């Protein structure tokens, strides 16, 4: 009887571990909510035909070290994850945009569903003349982040906010948010389409 009970408990433990390993919430981590990211637009149903990212908006995790390393050009918005490739599809330049005012302060918001020791949060923006109908490349971005927020290895809370002055831009642009994790080889990526 004891052997059967032990086998049952082991079986339940394996099944439970498998469920946690494959469920979206167990693998979730974080995304930008302001300005709203492509993955959140998919997750909340604003944008359709998004594939798997609609169930896992916080899971866009790829290699850290951007821009020297990290996801390949054309695969940046999906963090280099093939199953989230819909985030790299420019959709003819028709992703919904958040209206921003150039030169003004903006509060950036991340929703964190799994806390990680953090190196920093960095924000890049596309150059003037960027083509919104093509997948994002490093050459499309200003080389330096317009906002960097060091975190010194601390763990963030469930919501992280930082204020920063927006660059002087006009028209449609894309902001790439990069949340760099301190104790793994990865970072989280979030592309937000904006209009100044």
Automatic annotation (TrEMBL):
Residues 1-28 form the signal peptide. Keywords: Signal. Pfam families: LPMO_10. It comes from the Bacteria. InterPro entries: Cellulose/chitin-bd_N, GlcNAc_Chitin_IntDeg, Ig_E-set. Residues 29-194 form the Chitin-binding type-4 domain. PANTHER family: CHITIN-BINDING TYPE-4 DOMAIN-CONTAINING PROTEIN, GLCNAC-BINDING PROTEIN A. This is Chitin-binding protein.
């Amino acid at each position: 009887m004891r052997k059967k009970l032990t086998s049952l408990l082991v079986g339940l433990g394996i099944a439970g571990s498998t469920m946690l390993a494959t469920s979206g919430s167990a693998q979730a981590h974080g995304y930008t909510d302001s300005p709203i990211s492509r993955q959140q637009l998919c997750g909340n149903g604003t944008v359709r035909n998004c594939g798997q990212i609609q169930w896992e908006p916080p899971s866009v995790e790829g290699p850290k070290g951007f821009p020297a390393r990290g996801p390949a050009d054309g695969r940046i918005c999906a963090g280099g994850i093939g199953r989230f490739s819909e985030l790299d599809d420019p959709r003819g330049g028709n992703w919904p945009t958040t209206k921003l005012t150039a030169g003004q302060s903006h509060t950036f918001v991340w929703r964190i569903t799994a806390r990680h020791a953090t190196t920093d949060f960095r924000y890049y923006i596309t150059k003037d003349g960027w083509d919104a109908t093509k997948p994002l490349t490093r050459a499309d971005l200003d080389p330096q982040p317009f906002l960097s927020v060091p975190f010194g290895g601390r763990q963030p809370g469930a919501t992280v906010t930082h204020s920063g002055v927006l660059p002087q831009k006009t028209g449609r642009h894309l902001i790439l948010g990069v949340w760099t994790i301190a104790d793994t080889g990865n970072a989280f990526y979030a592309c937000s389409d904006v209009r100044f």
